[in-house]
Amino acid sequence: MKTPKSDGSRAKVLAAAFRTWTTVLGDPEPAAARMEIRYPPDWAFAATVSITARQQKRLLGFLRDDLAENRPGYSTPDRAATVIDGLLAELAAAGRTRITTADLAEAAPRIGRSRTWIAAHITDLIDGGRLAETRRPGIFRIA
């Protein structure tokens, strides 16, 4: 499995796409919302992009469609495991060395599986060496 880049290049590309998307359309409507763009690795402020109500509706529609596909019951175990690996990589890139059961449980909608499945997968991650148990129950070291 390929590890995602941690240099922030993907976030910068996404930010550039948002900037282009909001300015090229030249929508005459007034701004309805603002998106704050920040760049990794320290997530420093880069810019604020104003979006119109129409753009906001389109963006939220896309996100809702994407979330609907990834809700529990729609996500395969392999895809959910990939999402968890990505989440662990993000946390490690952000400097986190430990993760709690609650961190993964909160990410259940993003993972697309139930909390019960996530709890069972934590055991798989420990057995596979991706997580290591600590002396405190429910807290794991990211390996």
Describe the protein in words.
The protein is an alpha+beta fold and 143 residues long. The protein folds into two domains: 9-69, no CATH class; 77-142, Arc Repressor Mutant, subunit A (Orthogonal Bundle). 51% of the residues lie in helices and 20% in strands. The chain contains six helices and five strands. The protein has a three-stranded antiparallel beta sheet. Strands 1-2 form a two-stranded antiparallel ribbon. A hairpin with a 4-residue loop joins strand 1 (31-39) and strand 2. The longest helix has 17 residues, at 53-69. The protein is elongated and about 55 Å long. The relative contact order is 0.12. The mean pLDDT is 81.
Radius of gyration: 18 Å
Instruction: Give average pLDDT, whole number.
Output: 81
Helix residue percentage: 40-55%
Total beta strand runs: 5
The number of distinct structural domains comes to 2
Tally of separate helices: 6
Strand order of the largest sheet: 3-5-4
State the CATH class of the largest domain: Mainly Alpha
CATH-derived topology of the largest domain:
Arc Repressor Mutant, subunit A
Main β-sheet description: 3 strands, antiparallel
The portion of residues forming beta strands comes to 15-25%
Distance between the termini: 16 Å
**Coarse morphology:** elongated
